[in-house]
Amino acid sequence: MISLTSPVETWAHRVPAGVKLAALSVTTVGLLALQSPGALALALAGVVGLTLTGGPSFARAAVHALKILLPFLLLIAVWHGVTGQIEAGMTVALRLLAALALANFVTMTTRLSDMVAVAAVLLAPLRRLGLSTRALELSVALVVRFTPSIARKGGLLAEAWRARSARRTGWQIIMPLAATALDDADHVAEALRARGGLETTEPTD
Amino acid sequence: MERNLALIALFAALIAALGLIPKFTLAFGVPITAQSMGVMLCGTVLGARRGALAVLLFLALVALGLPLLAGGRGGLGAFATPSVGFLIGFPVAAFVTGLIVERWRAGLASVAAVASLVGGVVVLYAFGVVGMSLMLDKSIPQAALLVTAFIPGDVIKAILAGLITAGLAKSRPSSVLSRG
Fold it and tell me: How many domains does chain B have?
């Protein structure tokens, strides 16, 4: 499956994921605390500068990822344009842009495997308490494996629908799709049991 | 145990897949993504605890950087948009939906529809509106006004979730665990 990590290798790819996540948390809390548009504009300029260090194609991808904010920005512009509270509108808009751009920057420069490694460190206390994180690791792998498979079956169901009906694909294909997921789950459970199940305390690999 | 794990993982994958396949078009030509219906189905089919865990697993993978939200969105940025409240509300919505189906022993189709309505619309929108009001710096009523346009679509999804759950109970009787 395609992850959101940027294929453009930047200096930030080499920064440890834990450091980036900690910095992101601190900065986001800081952004929420900032109230003046001037300071927030400065923060946004900082994030833009950070993004530009990745080169033009990296920056283009980063801008593309911000498009989701467009309806909200439009809404803020209209709302605050009508009420005349321009400064408050600027504050909200700048904060949204800076926070999203920074979060995207971390996602774009961190490989999935590095993120998983950080998650494993964060879950270590659970293991110390005697809880197995094996079930969690296994389920993450299962979701990554089965999402494309279920999506493909959804595509096939939609095609079958189109072959038989002049109308557009309807909600009716969700029921068989969910049934497929249930059947897959039964097979997976059987396969897991056949391979020793979850009770294994020592990972064999 | 293995069965629970497999069901939770496969339903997390189902939510993701519902966001990947092309949009469905309702009778009135309103395009909807089926992703929030996936959250409702987690509750109605898997029950409160397993349903909420499936949704949490899905969100964890989104946060790790997989583009699993409808429209190929994902990553940490998904939690920095004004709609973050809806994401936080997803597992709670699945839990409440599942709890109602588990406790209220009447006709499955109607109970599942009402449960989806309470969990997937009332509870989910409560979280969504609070999140939006915080992120956009608006009052709660103002934020509520902004999302009203999406409520009819979600009400329809809740009713469909009820029908789908009843259909699943017929075709895979042992699989509707909320009534197990």
Answer: 1
Q: Which of residues 107-166 of B touch A (CB under 8 A)?
A: 135-138, 146, 160, 163-164
Kindly report, residue by residue over B10-68, the tens digit of the pLDDT.
999 999 998 877 665 544 444 456 788 999 999 999 999 999 999 999 999 999 888 88
Taking the C-alpha atoms of residue A70 and residue B82, their distance in angstroms, rounded to an integer, is 11
On the 0-12 / 13-18 / 19+ scale of CB atoms within 10 A, B76 is buried
Nearest residue to A138 via CA among B96, B8, B98: B8
ipTM above 0.85, yes or no: yes
Asked if residue B173 belongs to a domain, the reply is no
A73 and A113 assigned to the same domain:
yes
User: What burial letters (b/e) apply to B26-58, b meaning 16+ CB within 10 Å?
Assistant: beeeeebbbbbbbbbbbbbbbbbbbbbbbbbbb
Output the domain CATH number for residue B119: 1.10.1760.20
Domain that holds residue A49: 11-119
pTM: 0.88
| pLDDT tens-digit readout, A65-91 | 888 888 889 888 988 888 888 888 999
Number of independent structural domains in chain A: 2
Residue B149 lies in a domain: yes
Rounded CA separation B41/A124 (Å): 32
Same domain, A170 and A89: no
Q: What number of C-beta contacts closer than 8 Å exist between A and B?
A: 193
8 Å CB contact of B8 and A139: yes
Closest residue of chain B to A65, computed from CA coordinates = B73
**A115/A139 same-domain check:** no
